[in-house]
C-alpha cells in the first residue's frame, strides 16, 4: 500500500468514528500541532516540496476522480515567497516580493499583478479574502498559524509510522471540516502529511498532502523576482464576487 492510500484509509477510519467520543478535547493534540506551527514561524528561510492529491468522492466515499499537483515552495521572511505548481489541474507560479504579488498561468501565458502588504502573512490574507484564491499549503507558510486555527474538538492518536518516520498523529474538527495531521516527533517537529476533509459535502471530499522538507535550501533574492516570459500577456485581476 503506497503512502497516499495509507493516509486515505487512516483518515477514512477516523471519519467513521467521528460520531463517538473520538474527538473529545485533548490538550496534548493542541500542544503538538502548536509546537509544529511555532517551528515553522521560527524559520526565516526555508523550502519544501509537496504532493497534493485532491480527491473527488461519490456519496459512498469512493474516489471517482483524483487530481495530482506537485508544488515547490520557497520562503524568505518577512516579505518573499515563491510557489511553483504543476499537475493535473494547474501549471502556475506565484510570487510575493515585498509588496507585489504576481501569479502566472504557464499553460495560457497570462499573468496578473497586485500591490499588496509587504509581508507574506498580510499578502496571503488579502488574496484569500478579496480574490478567493485557494491554497491548501498556507498552513505551512503563515508565521502565526497557531493563532489562526480554531477548532472545537481535537484528538491525539499516539505515534504512528509514516514511510519509516515516527510521527504524532493528531486530528481536529470544526463545523465544516476535519484536519488530520502527521508530525515528526522530536525537538524540531515537522508536519509531513495532512488531510483536509470537507464535511459539508456529500462523500466528504478531501485534499491529501505529503511534504518533503529541504534541510539545506538554496534561496536567493533572484528566486522571487518575476520576469514575464516572451509572449506572456498581463491581465487585470478582479475581486471575487
Walkthrough of the structure:
It is a single chain. The protein is an alpha+beta fold and 241 residues long. The protein has one domain (3-234): outer membrane lipoprotein receptor (LolB), chain A (Clam), CATH 2.50.20.10. It is built from four helices and twelve strands, in the order H-H-E-E-E-E-E-E-H-H-E-E-E-E-E-E. It has a twelve-stranded mixed β-sheet, with helices on both faces. It is globular, with a radius of gyration of 18 Å. The termini are far apart. The relative contact order is 0.21.
Features of this protein?
241 residues, alpha+beta, outer membrane lipoprotein receptor (LolB), chain A, twelve-stranded mixed β-sheet, 19% helix, globular, disordered N terminus
Question: How would you summarize the topology of this molecule?
Answer:
Blueprint: H1 3-16, H2 27-42, E1 45-57, E2 63-76, E3 80-87, E4 91-97, E5 100-105, E6 110-115, H3 120-131, H4 145-148, E7 153-162, E8 165-173, E9 177-184, E10 191-198, E11 206-214, E12 233-234
Parallel strand pairs: 6-12
Antiparallel strand pairs: 1-2, 1-11, 2-3, 3-4, 4-5, 5-6, 7-8, 8-9, 9-10, 10-11
Amino acid at each position: 500500500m503506497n503512502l497516499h492510500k495509507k493516509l486515505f484509509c487512516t483518515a477514512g477510519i477516523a471519519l467513521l468514528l467521528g460520531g463517538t467520543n473520538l474527538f473529545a478535547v485533548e490538550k496534548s493534540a493542541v500542544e503538538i500541532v502548536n509546537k509544529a506551527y511555532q517551528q515553522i514561524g521560527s524559520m526565516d528561510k526555508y523550502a519544501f516540496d509537496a504532493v497534493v492529491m485532491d480527491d473527488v468522492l461519490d456519496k459512498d466515499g469512493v474516489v471517482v476522480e483524483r487530481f495530482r499537483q506537485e508544488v515547490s515552495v520557497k520562503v524568505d521572511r518577512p516579505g518573499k515567497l515563491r510557489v511553483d505548481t504543476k499537475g493535473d489541474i494547474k501549471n502556475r507560479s506565484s510570487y510575493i516580493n515585498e509588496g507585489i504579488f504576481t501569479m502566472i498561468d504557464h499553460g495560457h501565458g497570462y499573468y496578473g499583478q497586485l500591490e499588496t502588504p509587504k509581508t507574506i502573512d498580510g499578502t496571503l490574507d488579502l488574496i484569500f479574502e478579496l480574490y478567493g484564491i485557494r491554497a491548501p499549503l498556507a498552513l505551512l507558510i503563515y508565521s502565526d498559524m497557531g493563532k489562526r486555527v480554531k477548532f472545537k474538538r481535537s484528538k491525539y492518536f499516539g505515534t504512528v509510522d509514516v514511510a519509516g518516520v515516527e510521527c504524532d498523529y493528531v486530528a481536529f474538527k470544526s463545523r465544516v471540516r476535519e484536519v488530520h495531521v502527521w508530525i515528526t516527533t522530536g525537538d524540531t517537529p515537522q508536519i509531513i502529511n495532512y488531510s483536509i476533509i470537507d464535511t459539508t459535502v456529500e462523500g466528504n471530499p478531501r485534499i491529501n498532502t505529503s511534504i518533503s522538507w529541504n534541510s539545506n535550501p538554496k534561496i536567493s533574492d533572484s528566486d522571487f523576482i518575476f520576469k514575464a516570459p516572451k509572449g506572456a500577456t498581463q491581465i487585470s485581476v478582479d475581486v471575487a464576487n
